Amino acid sequence: MTNKKILVFFPDGVGLRNFAFTKFKEIGEQRGNQIIYWNNTAFQLKEELGFEEIKIRTQRIHPLTPLFCRIRKHIELNVATKKLADAVYQTYKFPFNYNGIKNTQMTLFIRLLISFNSSEKGILRIRKRINKLERSTAKYRYCKAQLQEIKPDLVFCTTQRATQSIGALLAAQDLGIPTLTFVYSWDNVPKAMQLVETDYYCVWSDLMKKEMLQYYPFIKENQLIVTGTPQFEPHYDTSLLQSRAEFCSEYNLDTGKKYICFSGDDETTSPLDQYYLEDLANAVRVLNSKGYNLGIIYRKCPVDTTHRYDEVIEAHKDMITVIDPLWKAMGKQWNEVFPTKADLKLLHNVCAHSELVTNVCSSTVFDFVAHNKPCIYYNYEQPQLKKGIRDIGQNYNYVHFRSMPSSEAAIFCTDKNHLESQIEAVLKGNLSNVPEGKKWYKIVAGETPIQASEKIWNAIDKIVNQNNY
């Protein structure tokens, strides 16, 4: 029994799924910890879940912090490009804005600072500048006062990529409180999305640990703790599984049909995603004419608020059933759309009651592999592609896809004319990525995905009891 006070910090809503809706809190309390949620979001943890929370009411970071964070990202990607002789890092950048005099002037200023600081030493200078800016804010002073009152034994930040977390974590460090952060997503490290500096870092796998040491030489090996991610733990929770009849009844599905899940992407990743859904619908229609009895479950990207799929869904409403993720919008920005605990159960059952999933480069490949279900990745251009629209093929060149143990870790559809035959081969049991997909899953998420929460608490216990991992 550790009997320590642990402050679980939500700078934004992305960590809710991992650290509020799983058994993470329950495991920590079983070890004797007092868990308080330090909540910087609009989500009401006390009201919704009955959790002890302390709200951060002061939201304003320094107005120059986002600008310098963007500069830092560009520099880190430039350094990686040169250091590793690999142009892929340039594709992670968003284009500069030259619309109007004000935007042009700002862009020129940003580019000037990038050019003067494109080195390892330059990265440190910019990081120090960001920290100085955030230490000057009312938010920093507000968070520091809260920490002095709470007196936690450790602050655990649930994501490394939020600007809202910088000042709060600096306040903790300045008070001598140990800090630990969790690297949120499988693609975040090579994309230069490490905005916070903490005493320790929880990473998904040995692969992610290697990446952290490669891209961030100021981080030492003893600061990195391989834990896995709680993201996939609900897939192993059998209490979430509904019977086929119950699931179909709740979502107006036909128990006699076999379903293929189409997992939608955000507009940036796959701007022509609706046409891949249309291709799937056309392939399923042909297969049904051959005697199959298939339907499609369309699960949109939770933060996609566009209506670009509507026409396709309407045209194929006899086959496509829309099952929206159970997320809740609490604002107009993408990071103000929050997951709910109910969606963990929904995703578990969509995986369990579908034959396979199809999408563009989504990590849902791992959600479905956890249920021994195959994944088809679309990897061909749409005829609607034109200048100014991003080609989805770029996604598969990203660094995180190099972690695949072989090309069989996913089923790649490189021609829409092959989609029908590939689906048929999957349904007949003649084509599957599951064996190689499981190897990929272990490379990315670690050897024991079901034990991630336990391992994070092992790390926390060790840090707070010895203050030396």
TrEMBL record:
Family annotation (InterPro entries): Glycerophosphate_synth, TagF_C
GO molecular function, one term: CDP-glycerol glycerophosphotransferase activity
One Gene Ontology cellular component: membrane
Database matches in Pfam families: Glyphos_transf
Annotated protein name in UniProt: UDP-glycosyltransferase
